[in-house]
Specification:
507 residues; alpha+beta; nine-stranded antiparallel β-sheet; six-stranded antiparallel β-sheet; 11 helices; 18% strand; globular
């Protein structure tokens, strides 16, 4: 075997040596999954139904992204999905029958069987689960059981976001997909938001197909890393890297999330965010919840959220006591997880994602890597993500960074001032975090001086209904702003520091 394709060497690259996106070529041609087509998977699943997301192709021209809440949903079989894909003609009668997808014109709509846990979807088909062989990358205990599958038609999209947990390996099985990626340092220019709320996802409202430089002026200073994956490619997405994904043609891809050392801290921050979001969203009306809560997400009661927060804090403290404070990583630890959502099960309810126990054979010691080919560390990439061709084997290609000039060349957008490439909060030598305001003055949350009483407004009877409507709209707007403010990732980090400090004081 070519030593550069040794699973131990590839494991070391993914877990320790690469901190920017790369594509592995030609490593999965021997996977049984490489023969998959939508029709083949249809024959496997038979009459089993799946939930399918349907979006508008014209949304590429919208000012903001097409959120999942903007989409329609149908629950039907993969057989009907393939019938919709392969329909011929455009006569009205062709769109009738028992197939709910036929009401959607494929010229105007796309369909996406997205984010399906393979362990659940193919629970009766172990051969399908074993057709995914992450062991070729050094993850010996990992196959389809710890993976998710995505089957989409041409034009299907995933809103721009980053995953709060882990790093990501994505295998392109069938068709092509285009990826726009951005480093974590450019989060501010991507206008990060937790609305709509989804555990473990931080979103960007920007429509990558038609960025609005008036509404989002900082965006044109971002430096996108762009790649189109072909069948047989495997993309490595580093920790907290933003990604916008579009299906270029009918496509099948499979991914696995790999847990990292910093997930202890991220899980704690997610528990804080969930508690804040659940509390605020519980006060919102049905209209607010439908807009601000992702359709795939659910809210927990306060007791469950509190237990999650307590467990996450205890786990973080125990981990810090055993290993020391967690610093911002450049790469993951040798732990694993089945999906990006890894919050704790806080009661006897079933967890929302499949669990995966860490096996000892998935941990690779330094000694076992001694015979692997040497590779330079982060310094092998320059500021534009370019790596010397002699550093990595030929079958590994860094995803190219196209620079902020890309937006002017392709969208005729002028670049704004350079992106601020630092976080709002900085760690002191003692490990404490200072949260800086725009004027570089420490922000002291919970200060006195808040308004305790608000004088009730008096309305004329004739204006009561109109005033009530206006008040409702204003209240919704204030609630949204408050939700967006308190769940901002930088605010949550600060809350986490204060919370942990007070928990230690009361222990």
């Amino acid at each position: 075997m070519d030593s550069s394709k040794d699973p131990k060497y590839l494991h070391k690259l993914v877990m320790h040596d690469i901190d920017k996106p790369v594509v592995f070529h030609g490593l999965i041609q021997n996977w049984p999954a490489s023969e998959w087509t939508p029709e083949l998977l249809t024959s496997v699943l038979g009459d089993k139904e799946v939930k399918i997301r349907i979006g508008l192709k014209e949304a590429k021209q919208w000012e903001s992204t097409q959120w999942e809440a903007d989409c329609s949903y149908e629950t039907t079989t993969l057989t009907n999905f393939c019938s919709w894909l392969n329909q011929s003609g455009d006569k009205p009668q062709d769109r009738r029958g028992d197939n709910p997808l036929l009401q959607y014109d494929p010229e105007k709509y796309w369909c996406y069987v997205d984010y399906k846990y393979m362990a659940q979807l193919f629970e009766d088909h172990p051969d399908i689960l074993q057709a995914i062989k992450w062991s070729d990358f050094g993850f010996e205990t990992r196959d389809g059981k710890q993976s998710t599958i995505w089957i989409g038609s041409e034009g299907a999209t995933t809103p721009g976001h980053y995953d709060t947990y882990g790093c990501n390996l994505v295998a392109q099985i069938y068709g092509r997909k285009k990826w726009h990626l951005f480093p974590p340092s450019q989060s501010a220019a991507l206008y990060q938001t937790r609305i709509p709320y989804e555990e473990s996802s931080v979103f960007s409202p920007i429509n990558i197909s038609k960025p609005d430089s008036t509404k989002y002026p900082q965006f044109t200073s971002t430096t996108p890393y762009i790649v189109t994956l072909d069948p047989g490619d495997v993309l490595f997405v580093p920790h907290h890297w933003w990604h916008f994904v579009e299906t270029m043609e009918t496509s099948i891809s499979v991914n696995t999330w790999i847990e990292m050392e910093t997930d202890h801290k991220d899980r704690f921050h997610e528990a804080i965010t969930r508690m804040l979001a659940s509390g605020i969203l519980s006060s919102a009306g049905n209209d607010g919840k439908s807009k601000w809560l992702n359709p795939t997400e659910e809210l927990y009661d306060s007791a469950t959220n509190l237990m999650c927060l307590k467990k996450a804090n205890e786990s973080l403290l125990q981990h810090q006591q055993s290993t020391g404070p967690i610093s911002t990583p450049h790469q993951p630890s040798a732990l694993s997880m089945s999906a990006k959502s890894s919050h704790y099960s806080c009661d006897d309810q079933q967890e929302s994602t499949p669990s995966h126990q860490v096996d000892n054979d998935e941990k690779v010691s330094a000694a076992s890597l001694s015979d692997s080919p040497p590779v330079k560390r982060k310094k092998s990439f320059d500021s534009h993500g370019i790596i010397d061709d002699s550093v990595l084997p030929d079958f590994i290609t860094p995803v190219p960074c196209l620079g902020h000039a890309y937006w002017k060349q392709n969208y005729h957008l002028d670049a704004s001032s350079s992106v601020e490439e630092h976080n709002m909060n900085t760690e002191t030598s003692s490990g404490e975090t200072t949260f800086a305001s725009e004027n570089n003055i420490d922000l002291k949350l919970g200060s006195k001086g808040c308004v305790h009483e608000v004088e009730a407004q008096k309305f004329n009877a004739g204006d009561a209904n109109q005033n009530q409507r206006n008040s409702g709209e204003m209240d919704d707007n204030i609630l949204k702003i408050f939700l967006e403010s308190v769940t901002d990732p930088e605010v949550v980090k600060h809350i986490g520091v204060v919370f942990s400090k007070k928990m230690k004081e009361t222990a």
